Amino acid sequence: MKDDITFKNNLLDQRYTMPKHLGISSRMVTYWKTKHILPFFQAHKNGRMNVPQAVWLYLIQELSEFGINTTKLAELAYLVWQVPREQGYFKQKLEKAISYLERQNDSDTDEVLKTYKRTIKNRLLLDTLSQEINPFVDAIVDSILIDKNPLSFYYFPKSGECYVRDGNALISEKLIGMIKDEAYLCIPLMGFVKSIVSVEFEYVKRDLDYLSQVENQIREIIMFRSPKYIELLVDNNSIKPLIIREDHKKAEQLANFFINNKLPKKARLLIEPRAQGNYKLTILTKTNK
Fold first, then answer.
1. Who contacts 245 (Cβ-Cβ below 8 Å, separation ≥6)?
2. Which of 59, 95, 155, 195 has its CA 20 to 30 A from that of 18?
3. From residue 68, how far is each of 52, 184, 211, 215, 264 by CA, in Å?
């Protein structure tokens, strides 16, 4: 079993995006902090955010522009960030993973099992992770960063309820009932993530955990070798080629390409340098027999 929980924890430790990168003023952020709308900023005073936190900031700005007042936003923040902590969401998730691994009795997962057991016994670490991991965060990581599926956030202003839906999944009975009974706002989150990822593509030089080895290779060539022209192809022609000619748009174009397309995890990269520092990149998806 892959150590999914530790992988996600490491991913959430990567905090690169700042409000200014998203066009949100420090004055607005300070105001929302005083209204208890951005709880995670209390622990990270430098204002750097991981992807789910940055999505939350974007979401708050969007809801604010729709006229949702700060009292409602604070109630929503409590529902999303604090209630799962009080209900032991992360601890229950860890307990289920431990129980599963114990039933498997697989020597290959012994170290993972020991890591989980150490985590659940460490109250300080458990409390820290419980502040950062909740259904909203899991949905961002699982649906968009890992599975690359569209995701929407439903907010019901009258009752204060919310619901996060994977766009590729069937609509649940719970959401159907909520939609029937109350007016709501539906906000697609994929666009927010693309904007945040494009910022990280531009400013972060190290490999990003939510990208595969091939995707990190492609990003390094396009973003940091400064080619004037890039032609990115997939060998089976299942994905429309990506042509990058304008330097100022390359981060946005590359973020769109990666998030919109599911590349095979075992894909390889063929790099063909061209004249004047240009490149042709071919993603090899076919296995050699």
1. 228, 229
2. 155
3. 21, 12, 35, 38, 41
**pLDDT at residue 289 in the model:** 46
**DSSP SS3 for 185:** strand
> What pLDDT does 265 receive?
78
Q: Assess contact for 194 and 256: CB atoms under 8 A.
A: yes
Closest by CA to 58, choosing from 186, 196, 165, is 196
Lowest mean pLDDT among 35-39, 95-99, 167-171, 259-263: 167-171
Please give the DSSP secondary-structure letter assigned to residue 44. Answer: -
Contacts of residue 2, Cβ cutoff 8 Å, sequence gap at least 6: none
Q: What are phi and psi of 199, to 5 degrees?
A: -65, -45
Residue 46: pLDDT above 70? no
Cβ-contact 274, 224 below 8 angstroms: no
Model confidence at 1, pLDDT cuts 50, 70, 90, reads: very low
Tell which phi-psi region holds residue 105, choosing left (phi > 0), alpha (psi between -120 and 50) or beta: left
Residue 81 near residue 39, CB atoms below 8 Å = yes
- Residue 133, judged by CB atoms within 10 A of its CB (0-12, 13-18, 19+), counts as buried
Alpha helices in the chain (DSSP H): 4-12, 26-34, 51-65, 70-77, 83-86, 89-104, 110-121, 123-132, 135-139, 173-181, 190-203, 213-224, 250-260
Q: How many CA atoms lie within 13 A of 193 on its CB side?
A: 26
Whole-angstrom distance, CA of residue 231 vs CA of residue 272: 10
Residue 288: predicted pLDDT: 55
